[in-house]
């Protein structure tokens, strides 16, 4: 495992020549050895298309490439960090929650609107997170941040899980998502927008929910 | 029925019964749930006035259904309190959820710490059941007994239960504390027999954040 | 009716509260037995017993100030706690920890220092924004996220630095390796691709310990006092000296600052 947890808010990564890591810019707290941090114009293996995708998506989370030989400590804003190991499947995660991930993972963006038509577009409006989600696929570790930490809720066929869109962090598995309004929820006037809708996830997998309805 | 998942998330397993929770605090649920907005503060004219004065903070919702419901509020730490017929006094903005069977009310505690806008209202919870209270950082529970009265910074106070008498003291030179966020020139002194919950922070305003 | 901490949260009373130790990660308990502690104003959350909190410079404890404070402070930021009993300290739910110094020294960012025993002498560090404590005694410090101890050689993001002990004060390290070459030139000229945010760190060498916090959240600075306006005193002399004035200032992505000047762009 390339990432080890030093404490709930800081992880340590060992960087070996030939293996890259990607992380959010500015997330490095300290390092030892000979490591370089290069800002990504492209941000990963996505190539030009991915960059375009990001432009359209207005993804505001710039990445940097970390390579060399040494140890790097990552953390950001004092947020809790969760390390998720992917073994071939795909993780869907909000771009601004991504702290760092191994270069062995295939990065892409997915238009969440495609799953649910009009409601999908509304989701973007409602959560303010944009219509795109970052996808990571393959074998490797991902470090995800959330306000207050995350907890995992399993999604099983026939038992969909409803999540406050602002508390949604990531999900993996064969999962469909759609926005819906719950009876009675509509007249809940919450602190911010998003309370009138809920994100319904169904299928088979798990969703990571953060212990807060606040965006990072 | 109430259980903690980690220290910042409250999980409530329901089988057709209900729970009252702070509006907007639900982060996820599975199964079937129905939500009803309730107005806090009480009935009638007094209730209406209370709601006006406290604003959004007092809005409570009732959640009823089958399945599990998860509640959290800005990653605050959650503490469970078991009530066995006694009465819990808690800062209104620090109450996350209560068993629907518990009786809640409001008392106006006066201008304690009014410079920061907090401490105007306290929610009372009584009966048999569980309540979940929140704090900025894990709360420390301090026992007050006849030989050991306790003095507390108003911004750190969250809740208390038992036979306690509160008084305000300003044993500090006013000049000393002036300046930190408006200044807490007073301290609350608790005497009697009971428990006081304090948080490791002086953040306790109706607005929620410093 | 299960609660996560066994049968319920621990209930403390004056007998069971720890002496000069953490109650939990965010709360520290100090015992006074007719003795004093210096603490930052507003950080006391509760106490048993009888205590007085007086501002520094407000009379009685002048002699204490003379022996322990060697920095023209803004008196209203610190108080002296005097009395008998047990007092709980906390700071906005930040992690708090105590450090024991035994005839030693520790330099800590002013915003992170919460309380210390008067047996220690407090002085201003040459590095702006930092305070040095010397002698024997306990310090209580707050940090955004738990403190991690590391040993030099190490390079640290300025905002993640809490302090250091025993090793020499850090120097600035600028990483402009990525500015070289074609891509580097492009970046420098056009600003496309921005900056990684990691162009500048504090570099530590030598024998000692470096204290890091798990975040780049800076605790708001406490006044450390005015640097005398004398030639030869960094930060106090006439003409401001280039990059050293910006120690610790967060660098925005895309802003090349003094690197631009360095390359004559």
UniProtKB/TrEMBL annotation, chain B:
Gene3D superfamilies assigned: Mitochondrial biogenesis AIM24
Domain of life: Bacteria
Name of the molecule in the record: AIM24 family protein
Database matches in SUPFAM superfamilies: TRAP-like
Species name: Streptomyces hokutonensis
Matches recorded under InterPro entries: AIM24 (IPR002838), AIM24_sf (IPR036983), Trp_RNA-bd_attenuator-like_dom (IPR016031)
